[in-house]
Design goal:
The chain is mainly alpha-helical. The chain has 15 helices and 7 strands. The strands form 3 sheets. It has a 3-stranded antiparallel sheet with strand order 4-3-7.
Length: 420
Amino acid sequence: MNIRRSAAILAATAVAVLGTGSVPFTAFADDSSPSASPSQAIPRGLYGSADPTYDGVWRQSLALLAQDTVGVKPAVVALDWLVGQQCDSGAFAAYRAEVSAKCDDKTPVDTNSTAAAVQALAALGGHDGEVGRAVRWLKGAQNEDGGWGYQPGGASDANSTSVVIGAFVAAGDEPAQQKKGEHSPYEALRALSVPCDEDGGGAFAFQPDKKGGLLANADATAAAVLGGLGKGFVAKAGKDDARTAAECVGGDDLSPEDTVRNGALYLTEALAKDGYLKSSLPGAEDQPDHSNTADAVVALAAAGQKDSTAKPLAWLEKNSGSWAAGAGPAAYAQLILAAHATGTDPRDFGGTDLVEKLNATGPAPQVPDRSTAADADEKGDEKGKDDGSVFGVWWIVGTCLVAGVGVGFLLSGRTKKQQP
Protein backbone atom coordinates (compact mmCIF):
# COMPACT_ATOMS: atom_id res chain seq x y z
CA MET A 1 0.00 0.00 0.00
CA ASN A 2 0.96 1.94 -1.39
CA ILE A 3 3.41 4.33 -1.20
CA ARG A 4 4.60 6.49 -3.41
CA ARG A 5 4.89 9.42 -5.58
CA SER A 6 7.07 12.22 -6.78
CA ALA A 7 4.65 13.19 -9.51
CA ALA A 8 0.90 13.51 -9.30
CA ILE A 9 -1.23 11.14 -11.34
CA LEU A 10 -3.74 12.62 -13.72
CA ALA A 11 -5.37 9.27 -14.36
CA ALA A 12 -8.57 10.44 -15.98
CA THR A 13 -6.74 12.74 -18.35
CA ALA A 14 -4.21 10.09 -19.18
CA VAL A 15 -6.94 7.60 -19.95
CA ALA A 16 -8.54 10.04 -22.34
CA VAL A 17 -5.26 10.85 -24.03
CA LEU A 18 -3.96 7.30 -24.28
CA GLY A 19 -7.28 5.66 -25.01
CA THR A 20 -6.88 3.11 -22.22
CA GLY A 21 -8.33 2.63 -18.77
CA SER A 22 -5.23 0.91 -17.44
CA VAL A 23 -2.97 3.49 -15.90
CA PRO A 24 -1.53 1.91 -12.77
CA PHE A 25 -1.34 4.25 -9.80
CA THR A 26 2.18 3.43 -8.78
CA ALA A 27 5.60 4.89 -9.23
CA PHE A 28 9.09 4.35 -10.39
CA ALA A 29 9.95 3.45 -6.86
CA ASP A 30 13.68 3.39 -7.35
CA ASP A 31 13.94 6.81 -8.93
CA SER A 32 14.50 9.69 -6.56
CA SER A 33 12.20 12.67 -6.82
CA PRO A 34 13.21 15.37 -9.26
CA SER A 35 15.48 17.97 -7.76
CA ALA A 36 14.08 21.37 -7.01
CA SER A 37 14.80 23.90 -9.71
CA PRO A 38 17.38 26.58 -8.88
CA SER A 39 14.61 29.17 -8.82
CA GLN A 40 12.42 27.21 -6.42
CA ALA A 41 13.31 27.21 -2.76
CA ILE A 42 12.02 24.37 -0.61
CA PRO A 43 9.31 25.78 1.66
CA ARG A 44 10.12 26.08 5.34
CA GLY A 45 8.61 23.19 7.23
CA LEU A 46 8.48 20.76 4.31
CA TYR A 47 10.29 17.44 4.49
CA GLY A 48 12.60 16.53 1.64
CA SER A 49 14.77 18.61 -0.67
CA ALA A 50 13.21 17.58 -3.99
CA ASP A 51 10.75 19.58 -6.05
CA PRO A 52 7.44 19.33 -4.14
CA THR A 53 5.20 20.12 -7.11
CA TYR A 54 3.85 16.61 -7.47
CA ASP A 55 4.22 15.09 -4.01
CA GLY A 56 4.57 17.80 -1.36
CA VAL A 57 1.42 16.99 0.64
CA TRP A 58 1.84 13.26 0.12
CA ARG A 59 5.39 13.01 1.40
CA GLN A 60 4.70 15.43 4.26
CA SER A 61 1.71 13.39 5.36
CA LEU A 62 3.66 10.14 5.30
CA ALA A 63 6.58 11.69 7.15
CA LEU A 64 4.38 13.10 9.93
CA LEU A 65 2.40 9.87 10.19
CA ALA A 66 5.56 7.76 10.45
CA GLN A 67 6.98 10.05 13.12
CA ASP A 68 3.78 9.84 15.14
CA THR A 69 3.78 6.06 14.79
CA VAL A 70 7.18 5.75 16.47
CA GLY A 71 6.47 8.36 19.13
CA VAL A 72 8.28 11.34 17.63
CA LYS A 73 6.50 14.67 18.02
CA PRO A 74 6.86 16.52 14.70
CA ALA A 75 8.03 20.11 14.52
CA VAL A 76 5.19 22.63 14.76
CA VAL A 77 6.34 24.28 11.55
CA ALA A 78 6.04 20.94 9.71
CA LEU A 79 2.47 20.42 10.86
CA ASP A 80 1.59 24.04 10.09
CA TRP A 81 2.92 23.63 6.57
CA LEU A 82 0.57 20.72 5.93
CA VAL A 83 -2.45 22.49 7.43
CA GLY A 84 -1.68 25.55 5.33
CA GLN A 85 -1.97 23.54 2.12
CA GLN A 86 -5.70 22.90 2.59
CA CYS A 87 -8.23 24.70 0.42
CA ASP A 88 -11.38 26.24 1.88
CA SER A 89 -13.36 23.38 0.33
CA GLY A 90 -11.47 20.93 2.52
CA ALA A 91 -9.51 19.43 -0.36
CA PHE A 92 -5.74 19.32 -0.80
CA ALA A 93 -3.73 19.60 -3.97
CA ALA A 94 -0.39 17.83 -4.34
CA TYR A 95 1.27 21.18 -3.64
CA ARG A 96 0.29 24.83 -3.55
CA ALA A 97 3.24 27.18 -3.82
CA GLU A 98 1.15 30.29 -3.09
CA VAL A 99 -1.03 29.41 -0.14
CA SER A 100 -2.11 33.02 0.24
CA ALA A 101 -4.06 32.68 -3.02
CA LYS A 102 -7.53 31.20 -2.78
CA CYS A 103 -8.13 27.82 -4.41
CA ASP A 104 -10.35 27.96 -7.48
CA ASP A 105 -11.61 25.63 -10.19
CA LYS A 106 -8.12 25.48 -11.67
CA THR A 107 -6.48 24.29 -8.46
CA PRO A 108 -5.59 20.62 -9.10
CA VAL A 109 -6.99 19.14 -5.88
CA ASP A 110 -7.00 15.36 -5.66
CA THR A 111 -8.35 12.56 -3.51
CA ASN A 112 -4.97 11.00 -2.70
CA SER A 113 -3.33 14.09 -1.26
CA THR A 114 -6.52 14.86 0.66
CA ALA A 115 -6.88 11.35 2.08
CA ALA A 116 -3.20 11.17 3.04
CA ALA A 117 -3.46 14.52 4.85
CA VAL A 118 -6.55 13.31 6.70
CA GLN A 119 -4.70 10.25 7.97
CA ALA A 120 -1.79 12.37 9.21
CA LEU A 121 -3.87 15.13 10.80
CA ALA A 122 -6.24 12.67 12.47
CA ALA A 123 -3.33 10.74 13.95
CA LEU A 124 -1.63 13.85 15.30
CA GLY A 125 -4.85 15.22 16.77
CA GLY A 126 -6.03 18.76 17.39
CA HIS A 127 -7.28 19.36 13.85
CA ASP A 128 -10.85 18.11 13.88
CA GLY A 129 -12.03 21.06 11.80
CA GLU A 130 -9.54 20.45 9.01
CA VAL A 131 -10.19 16.71 9.07
CA GLY A 132 -13.95 17.20 8.99
CA ARG A 133 -13.82 19.52 5.99
CA ALA A 134 -11.53 17.16 4.10
CA VAL A 135 -13.76 14.16 4.78
CA ARG A 136 -16.84 16.05 3.61
CA TRP A 137 -15.04 16.91 0.40
CA LEU A 138 -14.03 13.28 -0.12
CA LYS A 139 -17.62 12.14 0.38
CA GLY A 140 -18.71 14.61 -2.28
CA ALA A 141 -16.14 13.21 -4.71
CA GLN A 142 -17.36 9.61 -4.49
CA ASN A 143 -18.29 7.95 -7.79
CA GLU A 144 -21.51 6.11 -8.56
CA ASP A 145 -19.72 2.75 -8.30
CA GLY A 146 -18.75 3.53 -4.71
CA GLY A 147 -15.10 4.25 -5.42
CA TRP A 148 -12.85 7.22 -6.09
CA GLY A 149 -10.56 8.29 -8.88
CA TYR A 150 -7.45 10.37 -8.44
CA GLN A 151 -9.36 13.55 -9.26
CA PRO A 152 -13.07 14.25 -8.73
CA GLY A 153 -15.03 12.74 -11.59
CA GLY A 154 -12.19 10.45 -12.65
CA ALA A 155 -12.78 6.73 -13.05
CA SER A 156 -12.45 4.81 -9.80
CA ASP A 157 -9.15 3.04 -9.17
CA ALA A 158 -8.02 0.63 -6.48
CA ASN A 159 -5.35 2.88 -4.99
CA SER A 160 -7.47 6.02 -4.67
CA THR A 161 -10.42 4.08 -3.26
CA SER A 162 -8.18 2.39 -0.70
CA VAL A 163 -6.44 5.54 0.53
CA VAL A 164 -9.84 7.20 0.97
CA ILE A 165 -11.07 4.21 2.99
CA GLY A 166 -8.04 4.74 5.22
CA ALA A 167 -8.99 8.39 5.63
CA PHE A 168 -12.54 7.54 6.70
CA VAL A 169 -11.30 5.05 9.27
CA ALA A 170 -8.77 7.55 10.61
CA ALA A 171 -11.53 10.14 10.96
CA GLY A 172 -13.82 7.69 12.79
CA ASP A 173 -16.26 7.07 9.92
CA GLU A 174 -17.39 3.60 8.81
CA PRO A 175 -16.42 3.13 5.13
CA ALA A 176 -19.11 0.51 4.50
CA GLN A 177 -21.76 3.10 5.35
CA GLN A 178 -20.38 5.59 2.85
CA LYS A 179 -22.42 4.67 -0.18
CA LYS A 180 -23.19 6.41 -3.46
CA GLY A 181 -26.55 5.03 -4.42
CA GLU A 182 -26.34 1.35 -3.56
CA HIS A 183 -22.58 1.01 -3.83
CA SER A 184 -19.96 1.13 -1.08
CA PRO A 185 -16.17 1.51 -1.43
CA TYR A 186 -15.79 -2.22 -0.80
CA GLU A 187 -17.98 -2.98 -3.80
CA ALA A 188 -15.79 -0.75 -5.94
CA LEU A 189 -12.73 -2.73 -4.82
CA ARG A 190 -14.45 -6.05 -5.47
CA ALA A 191 -15.12 -4.96 -9.05
CA LEU A 192 -11.35 -4.56 -9.51
CA SER A 193 -10.46 -8.03 -8.16
CA VAL A 194 -9.02 -10.22 -10.92
CA PRO A 195 -11.04 -13.48 -11.26
CA CYS A 196 -9.23 -16.58 -10.08
CA ASP A 197 -9.32 -18.26 -13.50
CA GLU A 198 -7.59 -15.36 -15.23
CA ASP A 199 -3.91 -14.44 -15.41
CA GLY A 200 -2.93 -12.91 -12.08
CA GLY A 201 -6.08 -14.27 -10.45
CA GLY A 202 -6.67 -12.94 -6.96
CA ALA A 203 -4.76 -9.71 -7.53
CA PHE A 204 -6.36 -6.31 -7.98
CA ALA A 205 -6.19 -4.17 -11.08
CA PHE A 206 -5.59 -0.45 -10.88
CA GLN A 207 -8.50 0.17 -13.25
CA PRO A 208 -10.20 -1.86 -15.99
CA ASP A 209 -8.53 -1.53 -19.37
CA LYS A 210 -10.39 -0.06 -22.33
CA LYS A 211 -12.04 -3.44 -23.00
CA GLY A 212 -13.06 -3.90 -19.40
CA GLY A 213 -10.32 -6.40 -18.65
CA LEU A 214 -8.46 -6.49 -15.35
CA LEU A 215 -4.65 -6.57 -15.37
CA ALA A 216 -3.02 -7.70 -12.13
CA ASN A 217 -1.07 -4.87 -10.50
CA ALA A 218 1.06 -5.49 -7.42
CA ASP A 219 0.89 -1.93 -6.10
CA ALA A 220 -2.89 -1.80 -6.53
CA THR A 221 -3.10 -5.17 -4.79
CA ALA A 222 -1.11 -4.04 -1.76
CA ALA A 223 -3.28 -0.93 -1.48
CA ALA A 224 -6.54 -2.82 -1.95
CA VAL A 225 -5.65 -5.47 0.64
CA LEU A 226 -5.27 -2.68 3.21
CA GLY A 227 -8.40 -0.95 1.95
CA GLY A 228 -10.39 -4.17 2.05
CA LEU A 229 -9.30 -4.66 5.65
CA GLY A 230 -10.45 -1.16 6.52
CA LYS A 231 -6.89 -0.02 7.24
CA GLY A 232 -4.84 3.00 6.35
CA PHE A 233 -1.09 3.49 6.00
CA VAL A 234 -0.46 2.53 9.62
CA ALA A 235 -1.34 -1.08 10.35
CA LYS A 236 -0.42 -3.64 12.97
CA ALA A 237 0.03 -7.32 12.25
CA GLY A 238 -3.37 -8.99 12.07
CA LYS A 239 -4.29 -12.33 13.58
CA ASP A 240 -2.87 -15.29 11.71
CA ASP A 241 -5.24 -16.23 8.89
CA ALA A 242 -4.34 -19.67 7.59
CA ARG A 243 -7.09 -19.45 4.98
CA THR A 244 -5.19 -16.75 3.11
CA ALA A 245 -2.48 -19.22 2.12
CA ALA A 246 -4.95 -21.77 0.72
CA GLU A 247 -6.20 -20.97 -2.77
CA CYS A 248 -7.94 -18.22 -4.69
CA VAL A 249 -11.65 -18.04 -3.90
CA GLY A 250 -13.88 -17.53 -6.92
CA GLY A 251 -17.49 -16.48 -7.35
CA ASP A 252 -19.65 -13.55 -8.30
CA ASP A 253 -20.42 -12.39 -4.79
CA LEU A 254 -17.07 -12.24 -3.00
CA SER A 255 -16.97 -10.65 0.43
CA PRO A 256 -14.30 -8.04 1.27
CA GLU A 257 -12.62 -10.78 3.33
CA ASP A 258 -12.48 -13.06 0.28
CA THR A 259 -10.91 -10.42 -1.92
CA VAL A 260 -8.39 -9.59 0.82
CA ARG A 261 -7.36 -13.24 1.13
CA ASN A 262 -7.06 -13.55 -2.63
CA GLY A 263 -4.95 -10.41 -2.84
CA ALA A 264 -2.70 -11.55 0.01
CA LEU A 265 -2.22 -14.90 -1.71
CA TYR A 266 -1.17 -13.15 -4.92
CA LEU A 267 1.36 -11.00 -3.06
CA THR A 268 2.72 -14.01 -1.16
CA GLU A 269 3.32 -15.90 -4.39
CA ALA A 270 4.77 -12.85 -6.13
CA LEU A 271 7.32 -12.40 -3.33
CA ALA A 272 8.14 -16.06 -2.81
CA LYS A 273 10.97 -16.41 -5.32
CA ASP A 274 13.13 -13.30 -4.88
CA GLY A 275 11.69 -11.64 -1.80
CA TYR A 276 10.88 -8.46 -3.69
CA LEU A 277 8.46 -7.18 -6.31
CA LYS A 278 9.68 -6.02 -9.68
CA SER A 279 8.91 -3.02 -11.83
CA SER A 280 9.83 -2.29 -15.39
CA LEU A 281 9.72 0.56 -17.83
CA PRO A 282 8.92 0.04 -21.49
CA GLY A 283 12.11 -1.08 -23.17
CA ALA A 284 13.97 -1.43 -19.88
CA GLU A 285 14.94 -4.46 -17.87
CA ASP A 286 12.97 -5.43 -14.80
CA GLN A 287 14.29 -3.95 -11.60
CA PRO A 288 13.54 -4.41 -7.90
CA ASP A 289 10.74 -2.19 -6.65
CA HIS A 290 11.52 -1.21 -3.07
CA SER A 291 8.42 0.95 -2.68
CA ASN A 292 5.93 -1.71 -3.71
CA THR A 293 7.77 -4.32 -1.69
CA ALA A 294 7.46 -2.19 1.46
CA ASP A 295 3.76 -1.66 0.80
CA ALA A 296 3.28 -5.39 0.28
CA VAL A 297 4.94 -6.11 3.63
CA VAL A 298 2.45 -3.82 5.39
CA ALA A 299 -0.49 -5.39 3.54
CA LEU A 300 0.54 -8.97 4.26
CA ALA A 301 1.21 -8.25 7.92
CA ALA A 302 -2.19 -6.59 8.31
CA ALA A 303 -3.83 -9.56 6.57
CA GLY A 304 -2.45 -11.94 9.17
CA GLN A 305 0.27 -13.30 6.92
CA LYS A 306 3.30 -12.24 8.92
CA ASP A 307 5.23 -15.37 7.92
CA SER A 308 5.03 -14.19 4.31
CA THR A 309 6.71 -10.92 5.25
CA ALA A 310 9.94 -12.46 6.56
CA LYS A 311 11.73 -12.75 3.22
CA PRO A 312 10.75 -9.35 1.75
CA LEU A 313 11.43 -7.63 5.07
CA ALA A 314 14.92 -9.16 5.21
CA TRP A 315 15.49 -8.08 1.62
CA LEU A 316 14.45 -4.51 2.44
CA GLU A 317 16.72 -4.41 5.48
CA LYS A 318 19.64 -5.42 3.30
CA ASN A 319 18.91 -3.49 0.11
CA SER A 320 16.83 -0.37 0.78
CA GLY A 321 19.53 2.02 2.03
CA SER A 322 20.56 3.69 -1.20
CA TRP A 323 17.00 3.75 -2.52
CA ALA A 324 15.64 5.49 0.59
CA ALA A 325 18.51 7.97 0.64
CA GLY A 326 17.68 8.98 -2.93
CA ALA A 327 13.90 8.86 -2.67
CA GLY A 328 13.69 10.83 0.57
CA PRO A 329 11.14 11.17 3.38
CA ALA A 330 8.30 9.18 1.84
CA ALA A 331 10.64 6.21 1.36
CA TYR A 332 11.89 6.34 4.95
CA ALA A 333 8.28 6.60 6.07
CA GLN A 334 7.28 3.53 4.07
CA LEU A 335 10.09 1.52 5.62
CA ILE A 336 9.15 2.70 9.11
CA LEU A 337 5.54 1.66 8.52
CA ALA A 338 6.68 -1.74 7.22
CA ALA A 339 8.82 -2.19 10.34
CA HIS A 340 5.91 -1.13 12.54
CA ALA A 341 3.49 -3.57 10.88
CA THR A 342 5.85 -6.49 11.48
CA GLY A 343 7.01 -5.56 14.96
CA THR A 344 10.53 -4.76 13.72
CA ASP A 345 12.61 -2.03 15.36
CA PRO A 346 12.74 0.91 12.90
CA ARG A 347 15.71 2.30 14.82
CA ASP A 348 17.73 -0.77 13.89
CA PHE A 349 16.51 -1.69 10.44
CA GLY A 350 19.36 -3.67 8.93
CA GLY A 351 21.67 -1.54 11.05
CA THR A 352 20.03 1.74 10.03
CA ASP A 353 18.08 4.09 12.27
CA LEU A 354 15.19 4.91 9.96
CA VAL A 355 13.71 7.37 12.43
CA GLU A 356 16.92 9.36 12.58
CA LYS A 357 17.17 9.33 8.78
CA LEU A 358 13.60 10.55 8.38
CA ASN A 359 13.99 13.27 10.98
CA ALA A 360 17.08 14.54 9.18
CA THR A 361 15.09 15.25 6.00
CA GLY A 362 13.10 18.07 7.56
CA PRO A 363 12.78 20.45 10.50
CA ALA A 364 14.01 19.00 13.77
CA PRO A 365 11.12 17.41 15.65
CA GLN A 366 10.12 18.44 19.12
CA VAL A 367 11.70 16.49 21.94
CA PRO A 368 10.08 13.05 21.64
CA ASP A 369 7.77 12.20 24.50
CA ARG A 370 7.79 8.61 23.32
CA SER A 371 10.86 6.79 22.07
CA THR A 372 9.66 3.39 20.96
CA ALA A 373 7.09 2.00 18.60
CA ALA A 374 5.58 0.06 21.50
CA ASP A 375 5.02 3.30 23.40
CA ALA A 376 3.49 4.84 20.29
CA ASP A 377 1.11 1.88 20.04
CA GLU A 378 0.11 2.46 23.65
CA LYS A 379 -0.46 6.13 22.91
CA GLY A 380 -2.60 5.15 19.92
CA ASP A 381 -4.72 2.84 22.05
CA GLU A 382 -5.19 5.61 24.63
CA LYS A 383 -6.46 7.88 21.88
CA GLY A 384 -8.71 5.09 20.63
CA LYS A 385 -7.16 5.24 17.19
CA ASP A 386 -5.84 1.66 17.14
CA ASP A 387 -4.05 1.32 13.79
CA GLY A 388 -4.48 4.82 12.50
CA SER A 389 -5.76 2.86 9.63
CA VAL A 390 -0.39 1.38 2.88
CA PHE A 391 -0.15 2.07 0.40
CA GLY A 392 2.81 1.67 -1.14
CA VAL A 393 0.82 2.88 -1.01
CA TRP A 394 -1.20 2.87 -0.50
CA TRP A 395 -0.48 4.09 -1.88
CA ILE A 396 4.51 6.63 -3.99
CA VAL A 397 6.72 7.52 -6.57
CA GLY A 398 8.48 8.73 -9.64
CA THR A 399 7.60 10.39 -12.86
CA CYS A 400 6.55 9.36 -16.31
CA LEU A 401 6.00 11.54 -19.33
CA VAL A 402 2.93 10.52 -21.25
CA ALA A 403 2.37 12.04 -24.65
CA GLY A 404 -0.79 11.92 -26.67
CA VAL A 405 -2.78 14.11 -29.01
CA GLY A 406 0.07 16.57 -28.78
CA VAL A 407 -0.30 16.94 -25.02
CA GLY A 408 2.20 15.70 -22.42
CA PHE A 409 1.24 14.93 -18.90
CA LEU A 410 3.41 14.16 -15.88
CA LEU A 411 2.04 11.13 -14.15
CA SER A 412 2.75 9.61 -10.78
CA GLY A 413 1.07 6.60 -11.76
CA ARG A 414 3.86 4.25 -12.52
CA THR A 415 2.76 3.73 -16.07
CA LYS A 416 5.06 0.80 -16.11
CA LYS A 417 3.98 -2.77 -16.30
CA GLN A 418 3.79 -4.44 -12.89
CA GLN A 419 5.26 -7.89 -12.68
CA PRO A 420 5.60 -10.30 -9.79
